[in-house]
Amino acid sequence: MTTPRPLVRPARVLAAALAAGTLFATAACSGSDSSASPEADASSTVAERGVAAQTTSPSASSPSASASPSDLSEEGARNALITPADIEDDWTQVRDPSEWRDSLLVGSVDVAAFVDGRSDTQDCQRLVDALFDETLLGKPTGASAVTGFQQGDSRLLYQVAAYDKADLDDSMQWLSELPDTCDQFTLTGGDAGERTVQVIETSLPQVGDNRQGLTVTVKGESNGDPVTLSLDVAVVQIGADAITVTNGGLDGADHDTTSAAVEQGTQRLQEVLAGRTPSPTPSGIN
Known about the structure:
Blueprint: H1 38-42, E1 55-56, H2 74-79, H3 84-87, E2 92-94, E3 108-109, H4 118-133, E4 144-151, E5 154-162, H5 165-181, E6 184-188, E7 195-202, E8 210-222, E9 225-238, E10 241-249, H6 255-273
Antiparallel strand pairs: 1-4, 2-4, 3-6, 4-5, 5-10, 6-7, 7-8, 8-9, 9-10
Region (Disordered): 29-75
Keywords: Signal
Protein name: Lipoprotein
């Protein structure tokens, strides 16, 4: 099902959102974020996503010491992570944004609203589920590293990871088709009730081998009051490696911050893949 879009092509993805009040539920295994600011601790408008910040996940095929510079190592993945200086503003790095989850993303896609039926529904359900557990590109098969930042009611999650090349290509293709298949749909069930999800495509800096930018909005209610969660999602592919950015909140998504994370992050990853250690980003960079 497709709805007309002004100026931008309907995008496919990222249904999601960080929501306020009772819309956000922390997974039972989730630990508290002791490094978060008081404002962030008080805010339940931010989705809790299942990742551990600044940690790496080696795979069975993780590169050895003799691997070529094009192979992403655990140390390389950590070095490729962006820093607060890369995105500026008032973002504060979160020491451990582990097990973040957003209950706005819990539910089932309403198949009755789809003219083309089951296939489109499956694509949209996959999107919602992937946004919930932060697996838009599937699970990494090599090294990976994650970090998180917060500013008011917004959070930014940044991941660098190595994937199976064929699977990564398929995931990028799937993302590129979402604007037509999942431009608008209804999510039901869960604690948040019925929600309207819209996905539009957004432009990203021309970096990497392939890229996909999306803005996802989720409209629903919290305690009888209307709420709208806006989320930027950006993915950049370099060979079998990729960076993923998820950024937003109830106050909207800052597209400039998303672009800065993509541009600076891609440069850092390219430095790592070339066998170099990225230099610290100077404060004040545009």
